[in-house]
Amino acid sequence: MEKISVFLDDYRSAPDGYVLVETIDECIELLKKFKIEHLSLDHDLLDRTRNGFMLVQMMIKEKLFANRITVHSANSGAGKAMYNSLKQAQHDSIMPHSTILSLRPLPLKFFPPRVLQHYLEVQ
């Protein structure tokens, strides 16, 4: 199965080498079809009722995970809720303990070079 890296965001551009998806439905489809090396998630999306937290709940329910998951949402409260839900799933052995999970909020307009390094190292 082909490995890809996925960046869920409806505002920011994806780092080089990442597949950009703008909806949780697109993201779920890729999680089902590919082995995901790195999945980077935003919370606030154009469709306010189908956000990153809902995606995390679906991922946990359907046991769809990546080798690495980064929550990059600038919405600190929602980003922490997403991260904590994934951490709890890992603690409860729903998500593999080998999955590397990180919370790294990204600015909306400018990515400092050292922030992008996190994405470059993942591939």
From TrEMBL:
Where is the Cyclic-phosphate processing Receiver domain positioned along the sequence?
Answer: 4-88
The protein's superkingdom reads: Bacteria
**InterPro entries per record:** cREC_REC
Q: What is this protein called?
A: Cyclic-phosphate processing Receiver domain-containing protein
Give the species.
Jeotgalibacillus soli
